[in-house]
């Protein structure tokens, strides 16, 4: 469809001309117990005792025993049936191992505090156990010592009730006697207390002779009792070696030497003629390092801590300080608030006493616990386990972003889920923006390995490096400038609206733009408003505009007051400047109003811009003959009288396809009574001249009245009759006519011809002149 511009105007005999254009826990723990009580220790012992006593004795009878004859076999059988009974020795019968057993002995033991005060109420047992090498499977025997208030000693009779088997070699059976203090959960380690007992050790080298009296070959020595930590507090005696010397007193002995001579059966006994004393600590406090679930964790050994270590308190009541009390030979330390072991960081949570973790930890630090009599218990310090999460920022080529200033190293709970939170947009120290692309981890290489989408959500089982990859963003903006009017009377104000928009393809801010008034000679002082907020005039001399978010814009308004000759162009130029973007410059213009010319809103690439606003003719007298009326010069400005009226059009289309300008005159109607018209024989004539406009609508606009070259064709005379018929004014064939052109109409070349007897005296008549521009020749 052709694009058509229409203009109509009024005249008196007034001709009115107008134009018409057509074309977006913490964790909970179960209450489980793991305790060692006095009763459980005894149960364990009774089970062992029962197993030992019910086990069969090994058959150690050698071929030599067969020489004793049938009677001896019967005697042995009877012995086995009797079990632990002692077989009587008949007159004249040789003495054999089946007759051997230790004599009873009375045991006394003193246990006291370091202050020398005796300790009563302990559960002390004596245990006789074979320690021969090789062992011969003798049953274990135990008995309890009772506390004697009168003597303040633990006392009891030792009577090993089992017979010894027969052996024929140079080996012998050894029974060791040891004491156990049961019912204590823990005991100190590697503490020894020497005493001075008399040890009896007998050897008989005379074959077949029994010597019930003292023998000068007895050896004496000393015994060391050791308090050891093997689940129970125990006192054990050992012989350090063989000694010669005087015979002790009140000793007992048994021995057997085989008939062929040499080393025979020997029984070692030990007892003391001095009651042993052993100083013990009152309370034994054990220290443990555990995680939130109660599992053992490595201790901070660099500070001298040992997991499960037992410290003693040697007064009836005291305050126990973890890492402070009883650290013999070690530097006291408070438990650390944080330490690292095996690549895992442990951070202090609190502590509790006993074996079961309570719902709420005690968080007091340093740890101090009041203790009372017989209140030995463990103290467990709870640490939360962490591993390291390193968040590092890189560009797409693997270079550390902004010198690593954005990198973060933090701790994450062991086996917890780490949710990385890389920023979507980063602004670096150079004011450049970077946009998040994805992530890698550990040994994966930026620029080589495929990026993981989204953000990390990883189970932390070890130290992990998270690598966040960013792409440099490209900022962009647009700048527009629009006046509120395109034509303004000289001296009137114009309101201009500038819009600065963030058109960056990345979602970044625009925050470094300064505005300038590059050419605004008619600027009205103190008229600038930014997003509704008045600004000082210094705004235009280097003040940065407010930050513009992604896809956002700001609006700047200001005023000018142009003055000048009619049809003069007044140009306003502003610019936006910034460090990161090239300078943007925009221009706007307004035309000083010409009362004799009517501006037409221009089209996109072809259109009318101006037409005469009116053709006003001189008044005429009604006559019976035809007559001519010329334009009434007093109705026009002086510049119009000298320059004439004009019709302006433009064609900016590529290829120059040509155009066509026509005009048509409607019938004249009485202004007061539009239904009353003049004859259609009224006609209008004018003689247009072709002009070319250079630099149109700018301050450097010029008009060439004598253009040269390939030009549009213009009619020398245009004759219009009032019958509304289109008449060609000028046209441009294909290949000609691009640019801006004017049909200049001198005032003295315009006339209106009226038929005889036209009109009624005293009335005004109006008609419409329509200009039409078609986009084809």
Automatic annotation (TrEMBL):
Domain WxL: 606-777
Top-level taxonomic group: Bacteria
Keyword NAD: no
Region (Disordered): 33-97
Pfam family, one: WxL
Keywords of the record: Signal
Signal sequence extent: 1-30
Keyword Signal: yes
Listed Basic and acidic residues bias regions: 64-84
UniProt-recorded name of the protein: WxL domain-containing protein
Source organism per UniProt: Candidatus Enterococcus murrayae
């Amino acid at each position: 469809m052709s694009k058509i511009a229409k203009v109509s105007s009024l005249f008196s005999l007034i001709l009115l001309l107008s134009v018409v254009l057509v074309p977006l826990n913490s964790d909970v723990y179960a209450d489980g117990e793991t305790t060692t009580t006095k009763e459980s220790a005894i149960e364990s012992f009774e089970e062992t005792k029962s197993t030992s006593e019910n086990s069969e004795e090994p058959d150690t009878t050698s071929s030599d025993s067969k020489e004793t004859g049938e009677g001896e076999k019967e005697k042995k059988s009877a012995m086995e049936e009797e079990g632990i009974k002692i077989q009587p020795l008949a007159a004249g019968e040789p003495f054999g191992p089946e007759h051997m057993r230790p004599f009873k002995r009375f045991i006394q033991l003193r246990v006291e505090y370091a202050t020398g005060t005796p300790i009563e109420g302990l559960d002390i047992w004596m245990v006789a156990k074979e320690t021969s090498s090789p062992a011969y499977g003798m049953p274990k025997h135990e008995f309890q010592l009772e506390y004697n208030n009168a003597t303040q000693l633990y006392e009891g009779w030792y009577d090993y009730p089992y017979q010894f088997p027969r052996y024929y070699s140079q080996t012998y059976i050894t029974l060791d006697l040891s004491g156990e203090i049961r019912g204590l959960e823990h005991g100190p380690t590697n503490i020894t207390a020497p005493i001075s007992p008399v040890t009896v050790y007998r050897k008989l080298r005379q074959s077949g002779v029994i010597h019930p009296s003292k023998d000068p070959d007895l050896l004496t020595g000393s015994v060391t009792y050791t308090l050891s930590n093997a689940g129970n507090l125990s006192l054990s005696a050992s012989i350090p070696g063989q000694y010669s010397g005087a015979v002790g007193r009140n000793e007992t002995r048994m021995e057997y030497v085989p008939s062929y001579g040499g080393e025979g059966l020997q029984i070692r006994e030990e007892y003391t003629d001095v009651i042993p004393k052993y100083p013990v600590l009152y309370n034994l406090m054990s220290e443990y390092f555990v995680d939130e679930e109660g599992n053992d964790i490595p201790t901070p050994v660099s500070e001298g801590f040992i997991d499960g270590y037992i410290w003693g308190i040697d007064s009836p009541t005291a305050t126990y300080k973890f890492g402070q009390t009883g650290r013999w030979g070690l530097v006291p330390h408070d438990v650390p608030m944080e330490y690292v072991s095996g690549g895992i960081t442990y951070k202090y949570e609190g502590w509790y006493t006993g074996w079961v973790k309570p719902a709420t930890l005690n968080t007091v630090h340093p740890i101090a616990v009041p203790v009372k009599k017989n209140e030995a218990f463990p103290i467990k310090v709870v640490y939360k386990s962490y591993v390291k999460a390193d968040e590092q920022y890189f560009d797409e080529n693997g270079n550390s972003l902004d010198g690593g200033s954005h990198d973060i190293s933090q701790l994450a709970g062991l086996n917890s889920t780490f949710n990385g939170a890389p920023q979507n947009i980063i602004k670096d120290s150079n004011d450049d923006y970077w946009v998040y692309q994805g992530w890698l981890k550990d040994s994966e290489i930026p620029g080589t390995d495929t990026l993981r989408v989204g953000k990390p959500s990883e189970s932390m089982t070890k130290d992990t490096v998270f690598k966040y990859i960013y792409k440099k963003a490209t900022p962009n903006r647009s700048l527009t400038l629009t006046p509120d009017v395109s034509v303004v009377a000289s001296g009137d104000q114009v309101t201009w609206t500038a819009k600065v928009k963030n058109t960056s393809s990345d979602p970044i801010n625009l925050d470094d733009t300064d505005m300038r008034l590059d050419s605004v000679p008619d600027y009205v002082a103190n008229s600038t408003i930014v997003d509704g907020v008045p600004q000082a005039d210094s705004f235009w001399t280097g003040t940065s505009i407010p930050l513009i978010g992604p896809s956002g814009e700001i609006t700047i308004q200001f005023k000018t007051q142009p003055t000048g000759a009619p049809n003069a162009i007044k140009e306003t130029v502003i610019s936006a400047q910034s460090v990161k973007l090239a300078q943007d410059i925009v221009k706007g213009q307004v035309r000083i109003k010409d009362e004799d010319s009517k501006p037409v809103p221009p089209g996109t690439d072809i259109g009318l811009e101006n037409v005469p606003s009116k053709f006003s003719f001189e008044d005429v007298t009604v006559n019976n003959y035809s007559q001519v009326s010329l334009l009434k010069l007093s109705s026009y400005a002086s510049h119009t009288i000298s320059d004439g009226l004009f019709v302006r059009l433009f064609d900016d289309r590529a290829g120059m396809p040509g155009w066509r300008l026509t005009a048509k005159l409607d019938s004249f109607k009485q202004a007061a009574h539009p239904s009353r018209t003049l004859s259609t024989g009224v006609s209008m004539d004018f003689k247009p001249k072709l002009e070319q406009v250079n630099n149109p609508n700018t301050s450097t606009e010029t008009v060439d009245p004598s253009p040269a070259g390939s030009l549009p064709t213009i009619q020398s005379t245009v004759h219009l009759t009032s019958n509304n018929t289109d008449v060609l004014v000028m046209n441009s064939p294909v290949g000609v006519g691009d640019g801006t052109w004017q049909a200049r109409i001198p005032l003295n070349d315009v006339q209106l011809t009226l038929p005889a007897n036209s009109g009624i005296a005293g009335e005004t008549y109006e008609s419409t002149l329509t200009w039409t521009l078609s986009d084809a020749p």
